[in-house]
Each structure stands twice: as C-alpha cells, then as structure tokens.
Write a structure and sequence with these properties.
With 248 residues, this protein is an alpha/beta fold. The protein has two domains: 165 residues, Rossmann fold (3-Layer(aba) Sandwich); 64 residues. 35% of the residues lie in helices and 25% in strands. The strands form two sheets. It has a six-stranded mixed beta sheet with strand order 5-6-7-3-8-9, sandwiched between helices. Strands 2-1-4 form a three-stranded antiparallel beta sheet, with helices on one face. α5 runs parallel beside α6. The longest helix has 17 residues. The two termini are 36 Å apart.
Length: 248
C-alpha cells in the first residue's frame, strides 16, 4: 500500500499567563492510500485539534507531519457552512473560486459530481430548500471540487437525526470510495466510526495519546449500513467502548 501521510511524535501544548495545557502527547500513526480512518476519544481529548493540525490551520508544538509530495489535503468542517444567498451550484464552486482554480474544466467536474450524486434537480435552488443530508452532500462536493487526495471530516453528521445520519453515512462513504479518496474522520459516534472505517484510532483522555488502533475486516464494497448488520460489528463496538469506558 502507498503511504500518503505520516504523523510522528506529534505534541500540542496551549499556554496562557499561568498554565500550560498539553492537549496531544506523542501521537503517531500512518495513513495509506484509500484508507478510511476514524478517530474516536473522550470529549475534549483533542480530536478536532488533531484535524486542525493536519489541515495546517493549527501548528503543532512538536513532531512532524509528512505528506507524500504533490498530494493535497482538504478539510470538511462540522457545519456544512453553505452560504444561504448562493445557489447549490454556486456553493459547490466556492472553493474553486477562493483558490483561483475555477475554469471550464473544474466547473465541468463539479457538474459531474452534482449530477452523479443526486443534486442536479436542486442545482439552482438555495440551501434552505435542501434537507440536512443534502446540505452535507453539497458540502462534500464543494470539498471534492478542488480534487484533494485526503479528506478530513469533522463530525460530518452530528447535526442530523439518527435515521438521516445512517443514510448520509452511506452517501458520504459511497462518494469518497467512488472518487478514490482517502479519508480521516473525527467522530464521537462509535457505530459510525466502526461502520465506515477500515481502521479506528482510539485516543485517551487529555493529554491524548493513541491508546489503541483497530484494523476492521470489512469488504470495502459494502456500505456502512450493511456493516452495522454484520456479526463482528458488536465485537468491534464492545472493544472500542471498553477502551473509552475505562477513561470515564
């Protein structure tokens, strides 16, 4: 497998006038092509901080992040952040506009994504006319428009109800796999992490270390909703829950 990203001895410390808080301590893991990795851990342990560091929005205190030359990362935030005064097409094109990559070829790719993933009937509608799941699909297309190699997903379905979340998990997984992307997702939902991922990294409470890493034996062609019904799903769930329960 081709290694795309290496995180080595990563530390993150925050300082104020009186104290130093260590959020992340000696984090190490590798990311390979077509991985779908989920990161879980107790609330406040630094999961989103880790994504911010990987995206370049936050600087680590120590350690190295090595990405394969020529490969790019894109960050899909927890909130879909669609602009209410722009149409679905205009929202999907926003990233290309901001990075100066909008041209006929890149617009055609966005139109292909919109058509392929079921948003064509809403292309001239505004976000207020879309369901929560469709808004997340639009946000994902906007993220894919710049053709990143690695996607960072922060609590991608946390704003949705349970039934909608399961459906959009299938949508997100299907789109990412069809487009041949690698993904790293932060989530508080153990079931989501297990059903969507080929690997789950469990962080400890703060200061966070990698407490455990699980390789999940799924068929990559099966959707997350199918994985939830498999016999070994409960085994994985109990193992990861045990890791987290020890930290409460």
């Amino acid at each position: 497998m081709k290694k795309l990203l290496e995180v080595s001895h990563l530390h993150k410390k925050y300082h104020n006038l009186n104290t130093e808080i260590t959020a992340l301590e000696d984090i190490n893991f590798s990311v390979y092509e077509n991985d779908f990795i989920s990161i879980v851990g107790p609330s406040g342990c630094g999961k989103s901080t880790l994504l911010s560091i990987l995206s370049g929005l936050t600087k680590q205190s120590e350690g190295e992040i090595s990405i394969k030359k020529g490969y790019r990362i894109a960050y899909m935030l927890q909130d879909h952040s669609l602009l209410p005064f722009r149409t679905i097409l205009e929202n999907c094109l926003l990233g290309l506009e901001l990075t100066g990559q909008l041209n006929d070829k890149s617009k055609q790719y966005v139109l292909y994504l919109i058509k392929t993933y079921g948003l064509e009937p809403f292309i001239n509608q505004y976000p207020s006319n879309l369901s929560g799941g469709m808004k997340q699909r639009c946000a994902l297309i906007r993220t894919l428009a710049t053709k990143p190699d690695i996607l960072l997903l922060d609590e991608a379905t946390s704003a949705l109800d349970y039934q909608s979340s399961i459906k959009i998990n299938d949508d997100i997984y299907n789109i990412i796999k069809n487009e041949g992307k690698t993904a790293i997702m932060v989530t508080h939902d153990i079931s989501q992490a297990i059903s969507m991922s080929n690997r789950v990294i469990v962080l400890s409470k703060r200061p966070a270390i990698v407490k455990n890493e699980y390789s999940l034996e799924w068929n990559c062609n099966d959707l997350p909703s199918i994985n939830r019904e498999k016999s070994n799903f409960s085994k994985y769930y109990n193992q990861i829950w045990s890791d987290l329960d020890e930290q409460i």
